[in-house]
């Protein structure tokens, strides 16, 4: 089946289930699915019901959309994302973004768990992503360009929308939930990095490292969706502390920050 047909079918299905256009889509990272509990008048759509949709496999990722109201805005939450390391193609990983576009989404908040590369960071910090480095050696836009979405050679000079970053920083001050700012560096995973890789990432300008987000942000930019990115620094990256890394620590830290994460995202959504 043609890629565009697949996207349209998935979008039509979701459209038939929801009463309003979602202005804002929010992708919830590892351990951050808790935001779904805050949504009012919830309509849940499991990915497994949606035509042409892949199904998420990682522990801590539930695999459904939640449509509803948050801070009086129509939002579409994505609880559970698709990762390249799971074996999905870059097209599958980013299919939801194109579906968002067809649903009329104008703004996207992407969240993730990430390792702190910047030694001024500490576990539990929330980082506003100001830019990223795509080190996945892959790109979701490779292949025939779908002109309906955007140009062959899209501009990426404002990948994380400056206005949304300003809003996030102002909200952070207003509600006294401090944030840090930095560059998100993507590797595919699934292994955590080596200490030498982390030193290299730091030299290349990365402040946080993770295994998601960048493909979605590329596709969002391609189709003119404005993006805000928030990383939860769940651990210091490899070699910084004298301890091994594991997924449990990642989930544990994201659980600890959930109160301030919810406060921050709610505050931002209310001002968007
Ligand atoms: N590295 C890569 N991805 C991650 C990390 C990390 O240290 N922590 C959470 N996601």
TrEMBL record:
<feature type="binding site">
    <location>
        <position position="193"/>
    </location>
    <ligand>
        <name>a purine D-ribonucleoside</name>
    </ligand>
</feature>
<dbReference type="InterPro" id="IPR011270">
    <property type="entry name" value="Pur_Nuc_Pase_Ino/Guo-sp"/>
</dbReference>
<feature type="domain" description="Nucleoside phosphorylase">
    <location>
        <begin position="23"/>
        <end position="269"/>
    </location>
</feature>
<comment type="similarity">
    <text>Belongs to the PNP/MTAP phosphorylase family.</text>
</comment>
<keyword id="KW-0808">Transferase</keyword>
<keyword id="KW-0597">Phosphoprotein</keyword>
<feature type="binding site">
    <location>
        <position position="113"/>
    </location>
    <ligand>
        <name>phosphate</name>
    </ligand>
</feature>
<dbReference type="GO" id="GO:0004731">
    <property type="term" value="F:purine-nucleoside phosphorylase activity"/>
</dbReference>
<feature type="binding site">
    <location>
        <position position="212"/>
    </location>
    <ligand>
        <name>phosphate</name>
    </ligand>
</feature>
<dbReference type="InterPro" id="IPR018099">
    <property type="entry name" value="Purine_phosphorylase-2_CS"/>
</dbReference>
<dbReference type="GO" id="GO:0009116">
    <property type="term" value="P:nucleoside metabolic process"/>
</dbReference>
<feature type="binding site">
    <location>
        <position position="61"/>
    </location>
    <ligand>
        <name>phosphate</name>
    </ligand>
</feature>
<dbReference type="GO" id="GO:0005737">
    <property type="term" value="C:cytoplasm"/>
</dbReference>
<comment type="subunit">
    <text>Homotrimer.</text>
</comment>
<comment type="pathway">
    <text>Purine metabolism; purine nucleoside salvage.</text>
</comment>
<comment type="function">
    <text>The purine nucleoside phosphorylases catalyze the phosphorolytic breakdown of the N-glycosidic bond in the beta-(deoxy)ribonucleoside molecules, with the formation of the corresponding free purine bases and pentose-1-phosphate. Cleaves guanosine, inosine, 2'-deoxyguanosine and 2'-deoxyinosine.</text>
</comment>
<dbReference type="Pfam" id="PF01048">
    <property type="entry name" value="PNP_UDP_1"/>
</dbReference>
<dbReference type="InterPro" id="IPR000845">
    <property type="entry name" value="Nucleoside_phosphorylase_d"/>
</dbReference>
<feature type="binding site">
    <location>
        <position position="30"/>
    </location>
    <ligand>
        <name>phosphate</name>
    </ligand>
</feature>
<feature type="binding site">
    <location>
        <begin position="81"/>
        <end position="83"/>
    </location>
    <ligand>
        <name>phosphate</name>
    </ligand>
</feature>
<dbReference type="InterPro" id="IPR011268">
    <property type="entry name" value="Purine_phosphorylase"/>
</dbReference>
<protein>
    <recommendedName>
        <fullName>Purine nucleoside phosphorylase</fullName>
        <ecNumber>2.4.2.1</ecNumber>
    </recommendedName>
</protein>
<dbReference type="InterPro" id="IPR035994">
    <property type="entry name" value="Nucleoside_phosphorylase_sf"/>
</dbReference>
<feature type="binding site">
    <location>
        <position position="235"/>
    </location>
    <ligand>
        <name>a purine D-ribonucleoside</name>
    </ligand>
</feature>
<keyword id="KW-0328">Glycosyltransferase</keyword>
């Amino acid at each position: 089946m043609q890629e565009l047909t697949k996207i349209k079918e998935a979008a039509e299905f979701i459209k038939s289930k929801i009463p309003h256009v979602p202005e804002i889509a929010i992708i919830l990272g590892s351990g951050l699915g808790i935001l779904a509990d805050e949504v009012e008048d919830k309509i849940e759509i499991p990915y497994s019901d949606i035509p042409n949709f892949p199904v998420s496999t990682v522990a801590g990722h539930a695999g459904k959309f939640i449509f509803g109201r948050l801070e009086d805005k129509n939002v579409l939450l994505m609880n559970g994302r698709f990762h390249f390391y799971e074996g999905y193609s870059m097209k599958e990983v980013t299919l939801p973004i194109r579906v968002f576009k067809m649903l009329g989404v104008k703004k996207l908040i992407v969240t993730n768990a990430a390792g702190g590369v910047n030694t001024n960071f500490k576990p539990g910090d929330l980082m506003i992503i100001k830019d990223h480095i795509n080190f996945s050696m892959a790109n979701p836009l490779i292949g025939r360009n779908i002109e309906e979405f955007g140009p062959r050679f899209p501009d990426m000079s404002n990948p994380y929308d400056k206005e949304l970053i300003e809003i996030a920083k102002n909200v952070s001050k207003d509600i006294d939930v401090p944030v840090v700012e930095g560059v998100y560096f993507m590797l595919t995973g699934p292994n955590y990095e080596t200490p030498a890789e982390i030193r290299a990432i730091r030299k290349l300008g990365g402040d946080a490292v993770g295994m998601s987000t960048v493909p979605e942000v590329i596709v969002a930019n391609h189709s003119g969706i404005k993006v805000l990115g928030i990383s939860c620094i769940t651990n210091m990256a490899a070699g910084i502390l004298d301890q091994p890394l594991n997924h449990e620590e990642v989930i544990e830290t994201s659980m600890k920050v959930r109160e301030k994460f919810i406060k921050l995202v709610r505050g931002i959504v209310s001002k968007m």
